[in-house]
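Posting for a labmate who doesn't have an account.
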Amino acid sequence: MENSEVSTSTSRWQRVRTILYFLCACGVLYALVPREQRFFHEYQRGKVWTYAPLVAPYDFPLRKPAQELRREYRNIELKLRPIFVEDTTVSSHVLQELLGQLKSRYASYSDSLLALRTQHARSVYDSLSPLFQGNFTDRLTQLVHYLYRVGIIDTKEVLRSTQTGEFSVLRSRVAYETELTDVYSSRTAAAYLSQEIEKLNNSREERHFISSFNFSKVLEPNLLLDSLLTVQLRDEALNNLAKYQGVVKRGERIISTGDLITDEIFQKIDSLRQEMEGRQRHGLGLFVSELGYLLLLLAAFGVLYFFLNANYPLVLTRQRETLFLLLLCTLMLGIGFLVVRFAPRFLYLVPLILVPFLVRTFYDARLSLVSHLCVVATLAFFAPDSYTFTMLHGVAGVVSVLGIKNVTRRGHLFHQVL
């Protein structure tokens, strides 16, 4: 009597433990379930729609074609003028440096003339001395201030920023549309400065002295590119670009079975796919979907459990055999779920054929086939094309089961997989 009670309690504990194993497998797979909504229809331009009629399940925006969006983006980038800001401190700095270098050049020039100690050298020195008295320095100051009021810019920097040579100059918080012909570069500013100085009534020695000086090395650009503001304006313009061209109303028929997928229909289908994949469930919809995932896994492993309990009760009483079946099915389903989540186009590369092959190696064909169908049927709910996926893997499993009779060598494993 006591032995029967002990055996009964032991069998109950084994059954509870086995059920816990199945529930743990469901819990692991529930955490790996791909929860992203996916559009499970294959479609291409110019092909025939072979699925059931597609109707808009809800209102969704009709997106612009990718080529049209790229063209509009390119037009915005071409029309966008880079922003150059005016640095008001450059003119005074350049003028001070210019006068300093001229005086330094004059001092060294006059010293070399004095060293000659000739009457001609003295006359040249005396003729250069009025350069830095009154009229010349005033005129030079006026010319430098004028050049920097118009603006001096680095031409290479403009051409790197825009292909049209058009830009905007920000002065006192006001952007003025400008072209390269409206401002000076360092070379054109130096040429203009030399030309205006030559108009003064200078002596031959003064003109020779001034022509030997390179103004372009002293003149610096005062219009500087504000790359941060330019990028900010470009991003704002791109964000304000309309990405949609209309709305598809709920209940509107998008395409019927046998219709040709034209460009317009393709754009509607593609917009629905993007909207569906980016749509987030919440509230009651989220609860129902999570409950459905859990019930699906419980149903799949429940079928396997009751099948084993009815036909292979000894397998459930042996811990190693139970864990072997559960780990094999859980591993294949887990790999399949991860592939569907991150790279669904590689789903057909998952080696599901290992399930019937390994089970058939240790058990009979019926158990291997049922195990394989449970895995395939569960994963088919998340496959991009459930029908094709079920047919291909189902037939492959049947062929694998029928093709295996005895595996006496390890090499048979690789031959069967191939």
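Reply:
Got it, the structure tokens are right above this. Residues 114-119, 414-418 have pLDDT under 50 and may be disordered.
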